[in-house]
Structures are given as C-alpha cells and as structure tokens.
Specification:
It is a single chain. The chain has 507 residues and is of the alpha/beta class. It folds into 2 domains: 2-210, TIM Barrel (Alpha-Beta Barrel), CATH 3.20.20.70; 324-481, Rossmann fold (3-Layer(aba) Sandwich). Helix content is 34%, strand content 20%. It is built from 19 helices and 22 strands. It has an 8-stranded parallel β-sheet. Strand 15 and strand 16 (345-346) form a beta hairpin. Helix 5 (129-137) packs parallel to helix 6, helix 9 (241-251) crosses helix 19 and helix 18 (475-491) packs across helix 19.
C-alpha cells in the first residue's frame, strides 16, 4: 500500500492534494494519505474538516522538532491536537515512541483511531534495531514505524533482519538515497506500506520517491516482486536507467522493476539482493573490477578485466561486459559515416581513449575489435599502463592533445559542462565519442531537463567536436546500445535499442 504525503503549508494546498490523490488512486489498490500538522502554518477548523472528510485513509502526525519535525511549540498542546484527531476516527494517529503510555492510549480512546508508534533516528543507524522494534511493539500500538539513516544499501540487511522480530503491522524505512530499496520493495522488508511524496516539490524525507516515479516502478504491485539493481556510487542516482527501463518493463507487462542501489560494499549488497529475489544487476563505477571477482565471468568480461552486468543463474552470479558492445556498435557506424572504415572495420585509423577504469578498458577492446589501433591516456599514468597490452601505447595526460589520432573516446567521468580536453586546444579528430553521462540526466530531480532534452543534450566535448566538423557521439548512444544488450542478457531476450531510444526521447 502507498501512503502519499506532502509538506503543504496551508489548508488549501492540503485539500487539493488529498482530492487529487484520491481521484488518481481511488479506483486501484487501497492507499493512505499522510497529513503533517507540524508543517502547516495554521491548524484550524478547515484542517480538521479535511481530516474528517478523508478519515478512512488518513495518517495524521504532528512531528516534533526533536524528531526532525516542524513542531517546536508546547508538548501538551501538540498531544492535545493528536488526541482531537484521534477522536475523528482516522486510519492512524502517528505518535512518537518517547511519549507516555497514557498519551498513547488517548490517541484512540474515543474515535477508534489506531495508534502508530514511530521513531525517527537522526544520528546514525543504531545497532539494536530488533530490540527497539520489540520494545515499541510491547506497548500495544496497532502498528510501528522505524526510520533510520542509511549511507550504504548494504546496511539495509540489518533493517530487513530486524523486521522479523515482530509480527504486528510495521513500516521500516532506510532514510537517504541509499535506502531506496526499503521504499520500492517495502513488502519484502515486511512493511505494511511505504511513504511517497505527492510530488518532488512536497517531499518530506531524503530519498523519498514521488508518486509518479513510484507508479513508473510499478508500485505497489512490484514491491515484493523480483528486481534488477543498478549498483554503484553516487552516479547511480543520476542514471536515466530507472526512468527508461521501468517504463519499458511496464509497457511489456513485466513483473520486474529496476532500482538504483547506492553502495560501495558490493559483496554485502549482492547478498542482500539475493535475499530480495534479484534477477540481475547493472554495475557501474567504482565496482566493475570488484564485480569480476565476485561472479562467474564470461570470456569477454575476463578479457576486459571488468564486469558491468550480472545475472542470477543456478545459485550464482554470472557476469559479462556489455560496455564493449555499447561502444563498438555506434562507433562502427560512425567510422563508415566518416569514411574511416568499411563493413569489415576501420582502415588504418587510430583511437585515443581517455581514462583507465572499467569503461576505458571496454572502450579500448571495442576499438580493437573494429580494427582501430589504440593509445591510452589517464591522469594516473600507472593505471593507463595496466591497460597498455597488445601494442597499446600510453600517452602522458599532459600530452593528450598532441597525440595523432583520428578517433577520441572519453571514458573518464568528466562530462556535461566539463570537458576532459585541454582548454583552448583543438580536438583535430574525425570522430569524438563522449561516454560520460551528463549530471543533469537524473530523472525526477529538480533540475531535470525539459522533455526530450536527454536525447538532444550535448556535452561540451561533443559541442566542440561538432563545431570542428567531426562526427560527435554522445553518451546516450553508448548507453542505449549497452543497455539493450544488458537487460536483454539478464532477461534472456533480445531488445531493440530503438525501443529504449523512444522512451529516452520523453525525458
């Protein structure tokens, strides 16, 4: 069940949200709506009338400042507000776990409202999660809620385990972007519902999905179903993957959902994903080399020395590298367009690959597979030299603009408005392929570009290439080809990159 919340400041805005959500969700699965009295500028009779009108689906709280709420007035007055709400017979009255037992009972005595005993940890995830839940449940509420900060998705394993300690209705939330799995797959965590914001503008907690994104994820129907994860560092939260793949999955009536998972503890996170029924995972920076050690890689992944795709088969993780295809397919077409190759590959051309990570390793191999001689350049020369096998040359980073090459591939994280090329220096290339996804590509973020701009967007590097008359390939070209290959490999079916391109055009 979804509980839609919002940080409205006035009764008119609250009224509009309650009505709009009811109209949108009323014909589907059961839902709840949270009313935050502590965030309203004034709690008057109009507010109580609204609560009474929607009493059957309303969860009401008045969160005090000590629990990161907006109420900083008299405590007895706050409890009196909640007691009055309780007499209206709302679905739940949310009261903090540090109130007295008598005050807890007062919330439900007259109107039959059910008390939801909650605790929002502010500092760090406590070690005694199960003990806290048991102590809260022992006080006799109808449901309990525990929200704890999470810095790495691997920490959610403790929350998942703690939920087994009690058998009354509960809501367990990992707060922060790393806690997203506890929201998208709340049923797998044993939660009775999860909180989603009516819109990004009225979100009330860090890492909270908005209603549109929750529905794109297929929630609540997918919230106990299988998933595919996008695992990696903070860049996963900027990826277009969840927005595009989930729309594709919904269009094809798949039970699968695709979730960004922020982690630097890949082994522990893969163990958590196994418990949650994951079928596969996309792996991105900085975990591609570590993934190679934690799976059964195919020959291609071994050759690259990095894994970007995992799938669960026969009790183990299998790995491959679809980044190679993501670079190879668009670049082969560009070589033909630029007159540098034939259908059989490049003819006497050389490529300069910037970077020395997993993406650079995949790009170097892709270039070689289509007949390009490869040279490498990275800020850390020793890292580039590790990739300098089979005749690959290493160009010092400060001399990269002087390397005589026909093709430039940017496989560094530097992209968007920043360029990895020296300021004021001409590119002098026939083809430029920028693999760095621009930061503004994050779907659902406040700075998300207008519809279609993800597909149209050009990085500074690509803009310079076009200005100089070169063939410019943006990160989206690589992302679409490798993504179709990757999701198809995980699902065991062929996916046309153009079916993803159509969806990307809407972002």
């Amino acid at each position: 069940m979804l509980c839609v919340t919002g940080g409205e400041r006035g009764a008119a805005e609250l009224c509009a949200r309650l009505a709009a959500v009811a109209a949108r969700l009323g014909s589907g699965e059961p839902f709840l709506q949270e009313v935050r009295l502590d965030l309203l500028e004034r709690v008057d009779e109009a507010v109580f009338d609204l609560v009474a009108k929607h009493r059957a689906v309303v969860v009401v709280c008045c969160r005090p400042a000590r629990q990161d709420g907006g109420y900083d007035g008299d405590e007895r007055e706050r409890l009196a507000l909640l007691a009055r709400v309780g007499r209206l017979g709302v679905a739940y009255v949310d009261v903090e776990a540090d109130v007295e037992d008598g005050d807890l009972c007062a919330m439900s005595q007259a109107g039959g409202s059910r008390p939801l005993l909650s605790w929002h940890e502010k500092a760090a995830r406590p070690a005694d999660l199960a003990e806290r839940l048991c102590a809260m449940a022992a006080r006799g509420p109808d449901a309990v809620k525990l929200a704890v900060p999470v810095d790495d998705a691997a920490e959610l394993a403790a929350l998942l385990e703690a939920g087994r300690a009690i058998d009354i209705p509960k809501v367990l939330v990992g707060v922060g972007e790393a806690g997203l799995l506890s929201r998208t797959h709340y049923r797998s965590f044993g939660s009775a519902w999860t909180y989603v914001a009516a819109s990004t503008a009225v979100a009330t907690a860090e890492g909270q999905l908005d209603l549109d994104r929750a529905l794109v994820h297929g929630m609540p129907a997918t919230s106990s179903g299988p998933l595919c994860a996008l695992v990696g560092g903070e860049n996963v939260m900027r990826s277009p993957g969840p927005a595009i793949y989930n729309r594709w999955l919904r269009r094809h009536a798949s039970e699968l959902t695709y979730v960004a998972v922020l982690t630097r503890k890949l082994g522990d996170t893969l163990a958590l994903l196994e418990r949650l029924g994951a079928r596969g995972a996309s792996v991105t920076m900085p975990l591609k080399r570590e993934a190679l050690r934690l799976c059964a890689p195919d020959d291609l992944a071994r050759l690259v020395g990095a894994v970007n795709s995992l799938r669960r088969r026969s009790g183990r993780w299998e790995g491959t590298n679809t980044d190679v295809w993501g670079v190879r397919a668009p670049l082969a077409r560009a070589l033909l367009a630029a007159g540098l190759g034939t259908g059989a590959g490049a003819v006497g051309a050389r490529a300069l690959v910037l970077g020395a990570g997993g993406a650079a390793a995949a790009a170097a191999l892709a270039c070689e597979q289509i007949g390009l001689a490869v040279c490498l350049s990275a800020r850390r020369r020793e890292a580039a030299e590790e990739l300098a096998a089979r005749g690959r040359l290493v160009v010092p980073w400060d001399e990269r603009a002087d390397a005589p090459c026909d093709v430039l591939v940017n496989a560094t994280p530097i992209g968007g408005a920043q360029s990895p090329w020296p300021a004021g220096r001409s590119l002098g290339k026939r083809i430029v392929f920028d693999l760095a996804m621009p930061p503004a590509a994050r779907p659902g973020a406040p700075d998300t570009p207008a519809p279609g701009s993800l597909a149209r967007g050009r990085s500074q590097l690509c803009a310079q290439a076009e200005h100089e008359g070169a063939v410019a390939l943006g990160a989206l070209e690589m992302w679409l080809c490798q993504g179709a290959r990757q999701i198809g490999w995980i699902l065991g079916r062929e996916i046309d990159p153009d079916s993803l391109r159509e969806l990307a055009a809407c972002l």
